[in-house]
Structure formats: structure tokens, C-alpha cells
């Protein structure tokens, strides 16, 4: 088996993705592995500028179609400037969200736009992670955690709990459709217990 080198964390808002991405990066760094920890939307200077357009402002600011174009534009820049160069030099890339978020948020939960998402992905992105961790948790608890951060980046959290329930269902389907790549992780536990499971799955996937 080839080693898993492009790793993504997915899940609903506030589920603990960033925390777990950071803990996995720290674990790999402690083993002297070259790691690039990055995120979407963002992860390169241009994509971080596009991020502001997406995560701030009124929930109905963009149509689903416009969102797909903006997320994909940000992803293309992230891919060109950060992900590809890191993979080419042999680093492990850990991204807090990637294309599965567009598939679930724009492709399913915000309207049936999955065909557009898939066509655009195939045309300008074309990369799939080697390994994806989907952090699963109760949307009510995740929403409390997320909004408690008061980050000012709550455009999607403001779409409410029923939207987060739809997203959770979408992520469950993603895992059952991609059993080789995607691993469901119970996020309602101590962060270190979750990180232990994540590291174990990473080691087993090599
Ligand atoms: P996400 O990236 O999925 O939005 P974060 O990792 O930023 O989630 O976590 C959201 C909030 O919940 C943060 O304040 C974080 O400290 C806290 N948190 C993360 N993981 C846990 C956990 N396992 N148990 C309790 N709180 C957590
Ligand atoms: P993020 O900063 O990861 O939010 P959180 O920490 O709350 O999970 O992502 C910002 C928001 O953008 C988040 O609500 C999910 C949404 N998003 C999409 O709708 N589509 C996408 O393709 C991506 C990458 C994110």
C-alpha cells in the first residue's frame, strides 16, 4: 500500500475538525514527518481572501451556484499554491475541509446542485484525499460549541440546526459511499481519545 499523504477532516460546523487536524499534525511532527497543516476555504493567500467573501455576511448573500464557483476558485488556488507543491516534495498534507464539504454543503444540503459540483471538481480540481476523517456529532452540541467561539465567521452556522442535521445525514452517506477512504469518528469524547483513534487509523492506512 502507498502511504496516505493527503489527509482531510470533514464534518459539521463545530464538530472538532480543526482541533483534530492540529493534534494529528503535532503527532506526525513529533515523529519528524514533514507536515503541512492547512484549511478550506483558504490555505493560500488568494484563497484566504476568497474565504472572507464566503464566511462573513448574510446567509442568503450568495446563491448555491455562486457559492460553488467561489469555493472551487479558492480550492484551485489552494491546490496550485499549497497542496500540490507540498505533496510533490513528499510532505503529508492535512486539510481541515476539502472537496467533500462542497459535495455536502452546496451539492446536497443547500439545493440539489451535485451535478455542477461534480463537473467542476472533475474539470479543475481532480484530486481526492488518500484518507478522510469525518468527525460525527450531535448538531445541537456542535452548534453550541461553534457559536461559543464568536469568530464572526458564522454565516453557515446561522443557517440553523435543521441545516446542520441535513449536513450530518450527508456526511453519513459520504462515509457509506466511500468506505475505503472515509472513516467515521465519534466526536463526542475527550479530544485526546479521538486523536488516539485518528492516529491509529493513520498508522493502519500506511
Ligand atoms: P471545527 O473545526 O469542526 O469547527 P473546532 O476544533 O474549532 O471545530 O472546535 C469547536 C470548539 O469546540 C472549540 O472551542 C474547541 O476547543 C471545542 N472542542 C473541540 N473538540 C472538542 C471535544 N472533543 N470536546 C469538547 N470540546 C471540543
Ligand atoms: P470552517 O472554517 O471549516 O467552519 P467551521 O470551523 O465552523 O466548521 O468553514 C467555513 C464554512 O464554510 C463552514 O460553515 C462550511 C462551509 N463550507 C462550504 O459550505 N463548502 C465548502 O466547500 C467548504 C470548504 C466550506
Notes on the protein architecture:
By secondary structure, the protein is of the alpha/beta class. The chain has one domain (5-204): 3-Layer(aba) Sandwich (Rossmann fold), CATH 3.40.50.300. Helix content is 55%, strand content 13%. It is built from eight helices and five strands. It has helices at residues 17-30, 45-55, 64-88, 99-109, 114-124, 139-148, 161-177, 191-205, and strands spanning 6-11, 35-39, 92-96, 131-136, 182-186. It has a five-stranded parallel sheet, sandwiched between helices. Helix 1 (17-30) crosses helix 8 (191-205), helix 2 (45-55) packs antiparallel against helix 3 and helix 4 (99-109) packs antiparallel against helix 5 (114-124). The radius of gyration is 16 Å and the shape is globular. The model has no long low-confidence stretch (mean pLDDT 92). The structure holds adenosine-5'-diphosphate and thymidine-5'-diphosphate. Thymidine-5'-diphosphate is lined by residues 13-14, 17-18, 40-41, 54-55, 71, 96-97, 101-102, 105-106, 146, 156.
Fold topology:
Layout: E1 6-11, H1 17-30, E2 35-39, H2 45-55, H3 64-88, E3 92-96, H4 99-109, H5 114-124, E4 131-136, H6 139-148, H7 161-177, E5 182-186, H8 191-205
Parallel strand pairs: 1-3, 1-4, 2-3, 4-5
Helix pairs in contact: 1-8, 2-3, 3-4, 3-5, 4-5, 4-7
Residues 13-14, 17-18, 40-41, 54-55, 71, 96-97, 101-102, 105-106, 146, 156 line the site of thymidine-5'-diphosphate (TYD).
